Amino acid sequence: xxxxxxxxxxxxxxxxxxxxxxxxxxxxxxxxxxxxxxxxxxxxxxxxxxxxxxxxxxxxxxxxxxxxxxxxxxxxxxxxxxxxxxxxxxxxxxxxxxxxxxxxxxxxxxxxxxxxxxxxxxxxxxxxxxxxxxxxxxxxxxxxxxxxxxxxxxxxxxxxxxxxxxxxxxxxxxxxxxxxxxxxxxxxxxxxxxxxxxxxxxxxxxxxxxxxxxxxxxxxxxxxxxxxxxxxxxxxxxxxxxxxxxxxxxxxxxxxxxxxxxxxxxxxxxxxxxxxxxxxxxxxxxxxxxxxxxxxxxxxxxxxxxxxxxxxxxxxxxxxxxxxxxxxxxxxxxxxxxxxxxxxxxxxxxxxxxxxxxxxxxxxxxxxxxxxxxxxxxxxxxxxxxxxxxxxxxxxxxxxxxxxxxxxxxxxxxxxxxxxxxxxxxxxxxxxxxxxxxxxxxxxxxxxxxxxxxxxxxxxxxxxxxxxxxxxxxxxxxxxxxxxxxxxxxxxxxxxxxxxxxxxxxxxxxxxxxxxxxxxxxxxxxxxxxxxxxxxxxxxxxxxxxxxxxxxxxxxxxxx
Length: 560
Known about the structure:
Layout: E1 2-3, H1 16-27, E2 33-36, H2 46-61, E3 65-70, H3 80-92, E4 100-102, H4 107-119, E5 123-126, H5 130-135, H6 154-166, E6 175-178, E7 193-197, E8 211-213, H7 215-225, E9 231-234, H8 241-251, E10 258-261, E11 264-266, H9 273-281, H10 296-302, H11 306-316, E12 323-325, H12 327-341, E13 343-345, E14 347-348, E15 351-356, E16 365-370, E17 380-385, E18 388-392, E19 412-415, E20 420-428, E21 434-441, E22 459-460, E23 463-464, E24 469-476, E25 503-510, E26 522-525, E27 529-533, E28 543-549, H13 553-558
Parallel strand pairs: 1-12, 2-3, 3-4, 9-10, 11-12, 13-26, 15-21, 19-22, 24-28
Antiparallel strand pairs: 5-6, 6-7, 7-8, 14-25, 15-18, 16-17, 18-23, 19-20, 20-21, 24-25, 26-27, 27-28
Helix pairs in contact: 2-11, 7-8, 11-12
GO molecular function: ATP binding; glutamine-tRNA ligase activity
Family: Belongs to the class-I aminoacyl-tRNA synthetase family.
Protein name: Glutamine--tRNA ligase
């Protein structure tokens, strides 16, 4: 699979799905109806976000409709919790469905159509187990073997199917199969299973049904019932399309048509719902919305914006072959959006105390700070200044190299929004660790000026010690150390590639303007990165998640 960034920053032409739709409008009619059909068996991830943006976006662009339809045909794995989360994610991304449906809405119609196929001699009840069916399906080079029950009479099949519905048989005792061709080169057409028996209560229909349609049988017919004009799926379903078409043709119903595009694969990430569920259930992560997860709810908690995810989906584009997108493109999109929208604040994550020896004790003054230089409407705020400050430990070097512009013995720097200070003395503990810097300030250098007009190149951020509040910061990085954690070496599992430093919890001292921030509020901590207030925050104990660093790694990749 190839890594791609070809669409980034470029004006793109029509993608192949837009060409298909415009041809449909020109030669068929101008009614465009798409759908987004998730199975409610987990939380949506960034790959689903691409599909959401595509299906809803195409309907919006061509003045059509997009339905939300839940593929709720497997009651064992599905739950109303997932239904609710899916709705919330779609709406958070900025979309609203035209109609809300469930495959379970159509169970009676799907059953009647199955009866119709039995009457036509195109479906039969099979007593083989699903494992026996798998073993007799054949291979890509060898035809499958016909079931001993393939040629049951129509009457017997109708009777058995009705009894399956009535609950007379145990799970796995019988299935209903389509009667197509056990020698077809497409193995999905070798008498696929249409119904299986599952004695489990359904989250919507309760115990009304104990037989449930398979995806390949339910999907196309559901599209047809809703008169979907363009059924857009990911590329792995291209081999399913002949079966999709076969059911519609045999039933003579509205001819919805399926189109496939490449699914989204992201570096350092797994997208498999099975693997994501394993991460949650094994408590490798703290739930579906853990900011290390690729779920939409996790990205939201981490501080991503709907605009950044929509921009990412647009930049990724629509392709006909699988590709892997570098994670840095997603980071670029959120960084670009937050730069324009996030207010600036000062916070110190690795503090060292600075004492300004010639500043009056007990004095406090306020300096005006710009909230967002990209947005004049964001206004300003007042930042308190005092004799004792915290600065970042990394902004001081005792023996600096040439062209080092931050604080050093005898060197001068600008405190952001405030004075010039000069380091006069370094205080160490008994083990030689630096514990305090004693500095002097130029009283005439406030807000960008100086007593003699001199300028310094270094500008660092700070927080006033008596006004600072301690907060928790959660610094996230990739959950996996391997670029493709799905490429598993022999004897290992994807869990062997977990990054032990994917979440580092630390502390920060924050300026007063951050003390009343609300869950979900987003900020740029100046010179550090973008952070979001986590729902775990409480009065007096703020928690911030790092969304993304300030460093733009995507630019380097794009220049290659």
